[in-house]
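Here is an idea for our session: we take a single protein and study its fold together. To get us started, please write out a protein record for me. Start from the sequence, derive the backbone structure tokens from it, and show both lines together. Go ahead whenever you are ready, and we will take it from there:
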Amino acid sequence: MEKIGQTLNHLGRSGRVVAEELMQAILVDRDVADFIAAHQLTPEQIKLSLPKFNQFRNERAKFENGDETYIAKGYQPILTMNEGYADVTYLETRELKEAQRKQAVEGRISLMNLPKSYKHISFEDIFLDDNHRLASFGSLVDFVNDYPSQGQKGLYLYGDMGVGKSYMLAAMAHELSERKGVTTTMLHYPSFTIDIKNAINGGRVKEEIDAVKTAQVLILDDIGAEQFSSWVRDEVLQVILQYRMLEELPTFFTSNYSMANLEAKLADGRKGDESWQAKRVMERIRFLAREMHLQGENRR
């Protein structure tokens, strides 16, 4: 805080004259005058408060001018009463509160091997210029509105590349976070399977699986695009789905494959037909999610 005496020294004029000028400048300041009137300060209280009034004016000028030396970024200086005289404190600005709110919303969206921009997508960003998109979009809106509802099913959203499957589900994750305070984990499934295989050497497979299977809301993006592995299918994917089925945790999928085609892909093992193993996985997917075909043009 800069004392009035220090200010006088900087100005280099006669102390008494400058003191009177500075005092008048302080007392005619609208914020200071309103504060004095509101708290009905006595002359003695005003005298004791002059250094704080001076500090307030200096800090306010820095705040309003965006001065780089202003240390309380995002906080606005205000006058308050403290043990009988004025003091300076700092109040969160509307801009800071909004930034903190946005940060909290985005913090509840966990992305794994997906673009960071997905955290900023909301339902308002979804183009509904194609009637094929309305049914899928409506189902996601209903899910958010009804959450949490016991036994609430997710969606298995399939369709051609670029029609907006991942984009829509990222928007749903944002809405769940903003409106319901829900945490969503959205992962690119082909990349996740590679990470899981790499985690074998470090002994982190169980840790990686547990982190995914317990997610409040889970989105497995681009399932079916991974390189086939019986081990991943049976020891990773099925374990995740089994847990989520038993706990009735909302689970969503995007894929270029219909459920029937995904089952055929999962059954095509290197050692021959693995239809039974594929059916076990698909039973859990069908329990967790309702199949919907998203059609439309490639928007990439």
In short: The longest helix spans residues 43-65. The CA atoms of residues 5 and 87 lie 18 Å apart.
